[in-house]
Amino acid sequence: MHLTSTLGATALLAATANAALRGFNYGAFFNNQAPKQQADFEYEFNAAKQLPGTNGAFTAARLYTMIQHGTINSPISAIQAAINTNTQLLLGLWASVDDATFQNEISALKTAISQYGQAFADHVVGISVGSEDLYRITPTGIENHSGVGAQPDQLIRYIQQTRAAIQNTPLAGKPIGHVDTWTAYVNGTNAGVISNLDFLGVDGYPYFQTTMANSIENANQTFYDSYQATVNSAQGKPVWVTETGWPVSGPQQNQAVASPDNARIYWEDVACSLMAKDINLFYYTLQDAQWGQPEPSFGIKPAGDLAQVQPLFDTSCPQRDKCSSAEQHVIGSSYSALISPTRSTIFNFYLSPSDDGKICYLVFMLPNQSPEFWTPYQITSPGGINVIQLDSPATVTTNARIAGNGTLVGTVPQLNKGQFYKVATLPCQSGTIGYKVDSLDGLNMQFFQVNAPPLGLFVMVSD
Ligand SMILES: *[C@@H]1O[C@H](CO)[C@@H](O)[C@H](O)[C@H]1NC(C)=O
Ligand SMILES: *[C@@H]1O[C@H](CO)[C@@H](O)[C@H](O)[C@H]1NC(C)=O
Ligand SMILES: *[C@@H]1O[C@H](CO)[C@@H](O)[C@H](O)[C@H]1NC(C)=O
Ligand SMILES: *[C@@H]1O[C@H](CO)[C@@H](O)[C@H](O)[C@H]1NC(C)=O
Predict the structure, then answer these.
(1) Burial level of 49, CB count in 10 A (0-12/13-18/19+)?
(2) 209: helix, coil or strand?
């Protein structure tokens, strides 16, 4: 008996110690350039912990600078806020101006150590020297006007200066890393930077990867490809995800559509799977629209009083036995249809009483993609469909669990471009009828149902 309880306690401790970091990114100022004060950081850190559906897991904060905005080298007030709210800090030293300015970051770090001592150290989980500095000096970064960056040798000096600054202080031994895009890490010219790090922070945004097929359907794959490429270049060091997210609003980037529905899909696919894998995650972001409107905007919460405004999408995660809880999510947008091994779409059709007694054909149309017409669909994995007539049609709150029972009315073994499929011939029934389309043999498809040329599931009434 004694043995059992001892083992129980040990297991619990180990689990706590290993728990991966979950947090958001926190800028030093609002959109109107007003510096965030200690009370603002405390408000944000508390709001993160209270984010619905997350069980208080978002207890970490990544900062970009050690300096309180608007001062030369005073320590950022987020430190006192983190101590007061028991928030874990991934510190950041901004490294993309010049050597003299970097010394201000070092000064602020040293001042913070002497001012807050062990209480500060107890909340620091890592220190990042720089943020996307190597990305900004690449041809893509320059083309995108991303601003001043830093050369690899410059970053190496800054990393060494940071190590020296924390030596023999309560912060000694804290892991020192750097944050950049995967493209910077796979670039062999930067290998020397990696050799000097304890961990790599990677920022990944499939939304911006416009030279690739970057619809939300491909986003999970695109993200993990870039994560894996970083791991492969990491010289065995841990890789933390320091920024990732999908915008809730903003312009379309190639195939990537910014919307709360898509942000929810990204959260469920990428954020939830990272958490399930116990990978350190700093999502971008809790709120980015305070006192101004960024384009695109990545905020889970819109502008306004953070404690009052509701999230723009559901941030809960499916249970590890994924289907049971995922079934409760309504992810539909009323515009786009998703048909994949884990997602089905329900289509409602209304027939008038004058159609009663006629013959109805349930058809699926997949036009050829041609430059003359807008044919908005992507098939990322081939396969077919099963079509189920539901006992009752969908409402705005229908999820997979309550979609109810139905009858299989037709099957298309394989969907091919440029084809028209007669799924079923049925007596027309007036009123609203719901049909659920399930993926068959791995079909992964996303489309916007349109009429010209017809694309999607239709009911045709014979005369
Ligand atoms: C590779 O890295 C070097 C140094 O950071 C940079 O100057 C160069 O532009 C990078 N190359 C590409 C293709 O991004
Ligand atoms: C940067 O430039 C590349 C190449 O022109 C483009 O594909 C990409 O969307 C741009 N990224 C951002 C963040 O604007
Ligand atoms: C996203 O990709 C990761 C890594 O391959 C995988 O573990 C996870 O299940 C994927 N999520 C979905 C919804 O496909
Ligand atoms: C579906 O059918 C099962 C078994 O016949 C029944 O127990 C269940 O209540 C039905 N569900 C709905 C939503 O009608």
Answers:
(1) middle
(2) coil
Q: Is 404 in the pocket of ligand 4 (CB under 6 A)?
A: yes
Pocket of ligand 3 (CB under 6 A): 220, 224, 269, 273
CA-CA distance, 203 to 268, in Å (whole number)? 18
Look up residue 17 and give its two tokens.
């110690």
What the block records as the tokens of 405 is 């029972």
- Compute the distance from residue 80 Cα to the ligand 2 centre, in Å: 37
Ligand 4 center to residue 397 CA distance, Å? 18
* pTM reported for the whole predicted model: 0.69
Q: Which domains does the chain have, with CATH numbers?
A: 18-317 (3.20.20.80), 332-461 (2.60.120)
Ligand 2: list residues with CB < 6 Å.
140, 143-144, 208, 210-211
Which of 328, 391, 402, 405 for a ligand 4 pocket mutation test, highest count of atoms within 8 Å of Cβ? 405
Pairwise pLDDT comparison (46 vs 350), residue with the higher score = 46
Cα end-to-end span (Å), the chain:
79
- Whole-number Å distance between alpha carbons of 218 and 212: 9
161's torsion region: left (phi>0), alpha (psi -120 to 50) or beta? alpha
Strands across the sheet containing 444-448: 336-339, 444-448, 377-381
| Mean pLDDT of the chain, nearest integer | 89
Q: What are phi and psi of 332, to 5 degrees?
A: -70, 155
Q: Which ligand is nearest to the CA of 180?
A: 1
| 3-class secondary structure per residue, 46-111 | HHHHCCCCCCCCCCEEEECCCECCCCCCCECCHHHHHHHHCCEEEEEECCCCCHHHHHHHHHHHHH
Average pLDDT over residues 390-402: 74
Question: Is 198 exposed, middle or buried (CB count within 10 Å of its CB: 0-12, 13-18, 19+)?
Answer: middle
Rounded to 5 degrees, φ, ψ at 285 are -165, 175
201 exposure class (CB count in 10 Å sphere: 0-12, 13-18, 19+): buried
Total count of residues recorded for the chain: 463
Looking at residues 16-36, what average pLDDT do you find?
87
What number of CA atoms fall less than 13 Å from residue 180's CA on the CB side? 36
Quote the ligand 2 centre to 284 CA distance (angstroms): 18
